[in-house]
Fold this sequence. Notes:
Blueprint: E1 8-16, E2 20-28, E3 39-40, E4 43-54, E5 65-70, E6 90-92, E7 95-97, E8 100-101, E9 104-108, E10 110-115, E11 123-132
Antiparallel strand pairs: 1-2, 2-11, 3-10, 4-6, 4-9, 4-11, 5-10, 7-8
Amino acid sequence: MPANNDAIVTVTEERIGHTVRKxxxxxxADTGDGSVPSTGCxxxxxxxxxxxxxxGTKVPDDNYDIVLNDGNGFDVMGGTLANRSNTTTQQAFxxxxxTTYGERFVDGGLTFVLSGNTDVxxxxxxxxxxxxx
Length: 133
């Protein structure tokens, strides 16, 4: 069934303390094919953690994937948002090289990309925590 293009993605920002910010990406999948459009959620700062939380009633496919691509097309999380649970809130930290975790600098461009979901109208949240520059 083709996409109905009625998927919804909204991005909000919250200030937490003096320098820490949270970008919240709320997403609801398309009612035709379960797709979620890639969405810009630009920021300038050091990304240090992301938390995913699937909707408790409109559950996505288990092991859906998220990448947060910077302006150069690199996943700032280094793949740690792959295989998300469809029932459990999970946190992830950026991988810099190999198994070394750390903060990743983003200079403006950041794109939320969700794949691996076919459950129509599934929903969830991805919170991106960063230190603002």
